[in-house]
Amino acid sequence: MRIDVVTIFPQMFATVREYGMTRIAVEQGALAMHLWDPRSYSEDSYKRVDDRPYGGGPGMVMQAPQMVKAIRAAREASRGKVICLSPQGPVLNYSRLRELSEEPALVLVAGRYEGIDQRVLDNEVDDELSIGDYVVAGGELPAMVLIEALVRQLPGVLGNENSADADSFSNGLLDWPHFTRPEVFEGERVPEVLLGGNHEEIRRWRLKEALGQTWLKRPDLLECRNMSDEEQMLLAEFKAEHP
Ligand code: 9D3
Fold this sequence. Notes:
Blueprint: E1 2-6, H1 14-18, H2 20-28, E2 32-36, E3 50-51, E4 61-62, H3 64-78, E5 81-85, H4 94-101, E6 105-110, H5 118-124, E7 127-129, H6 140-153, E8 184-185, E9 188-189, H7 193-196, H8 199-217, H9 219-223, H10 229-241
Parallel strand pairs: 1-2, 1-6, 5-6, 5-7
Antiparallel strand pairs: 3-4, 8-9
Helix pairs in contact: 3-5, 4-6, 8-10
């Protein structure tokens, strides 16, 4: 997947290039990231990209000419849909993420200050996207959240670990609890069933825990999900054990 990012802080995206799963995706050629800095399209000698809002008020607004030049350059190189990270967009969810992960290329626009001149959004941006109902200082971290989540959906980036149905939220449930060595830590033992090697018993225990943890912590997720007979039985058992 090709991802072009329009940002006045291109150095922040070293995080994507240099760390973790996104770094591996870049090394494998599954992710190609390109950065476009509106500052380099600024004509004035201070390389300004912002100015005061018409109508007055606090803060600064990103100016249209520099933003538009950077977005058009990115779009011509990418041919992908242009998505602006914005608190005004619909909140990203798993279903939207899956749709976006099917795209061969995307242009992400990250804003700073109080926002971007509305004429840029009206004429150069296809969609807006928020990462949640809280405010951060700019679109760069939200863009990186989206990039990392997209990379997890790309086929073959980290072998079967990355397969869509190994992922929580693809099955609509939270994770089951995980344990590793040592077998006893500060007096607490690993659940006996996980030490036995009975794979069917382990599968049932994990499904029961995933259902139970979801019921305890995110009951809203269970409401919009159909349950098989086995799942209903396991959740009933879990509830009986957790009064
Ligand atoms: C009081 C007006 N603010 C809107 C809530 C102005 C404003 C603050 C911070 C406008 C933009 C920003 C920077 N945030 C983002 O660019 C952003 C964001 C966010 O703040 N929360 C959740 N998702 C996103 S995506 C981009």
